[in-house]
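Write out this protein's structure.
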Amino acid sequence: MADVTTIHQPVLLDDCVDLVAPALAKPGATAVDCTLGLAGHSTAFLKACPEARLIGIDRDTEALGLATERMRMEGLSERFIPVHAAFDEFAQVLDDQSIDRVDAVFMDLGLSSLQIDETDRGFSYSHDAPLDMRMDVSQPLTAERILAEYSYADLVRIFRTYGEERFSKQIAREIVRRRETEPLATSGQLNRLVDEVVPQAHRPAGNPAKRVFQALRIEVNGELDKLAGTLPQIANRLAVGGRLVVESYHSLEDKTVKSFMNQGLKADVPPDMPVVPPDMMPFFKELTR
């Protein structure tokens, strides 16, 4: 288990605080961190905004426990509400807390620092570990199960769609061939398989298996579907003047977020309409890109 006293600082922390804090200045303001992790961002938000309270959502029970302990050590527990849930349960989480509107919502997409640092769930291609990749270990679907049970066509689909992998067909074909004689159970096995399949002349920078690992992680955790389902819930529950801040790290997340936000930046009316009804006015104003 990770040590809560040795947690590193999140990237762009000061920028995120500067973007979120103006919405949390008033007494009783409520923020939601949809990707709590080890509470690096959340502790900074609460320290910068002494009048605010924060709901921290995470589906990783280990992260939730460590974050709660960190809040206790920082003296912030009284303004912190930890919730074990996936972020696409956003509206239900607010309903359970009898909260109608919130003033700020934050999302730091992808893997948490805990998941990156811990080597026993198979998220990293740098360490040999069981091919698990679950953010919520109570769910049944694992990366190993996908490699064992998905058809050739479905493997091609996830590698191509979620990994943007040029050699999806070749990798899927080799997985199907090898699993006939031995299970693909560890990250080391998968790493070696991809290394053998992808031609040297066509390898991306870094590990050639990184796109396959990304695709499996997204499929196991339903990351893009959950993200697409969460953003409208947030828009519906964000108070007037509230702020939504999202950190994304790869093009698929970025496209999903920007596509939704762009819908909220313009009026949903024909271009020749002389007067825009209030319910069709833009509901977002861009803070930064």
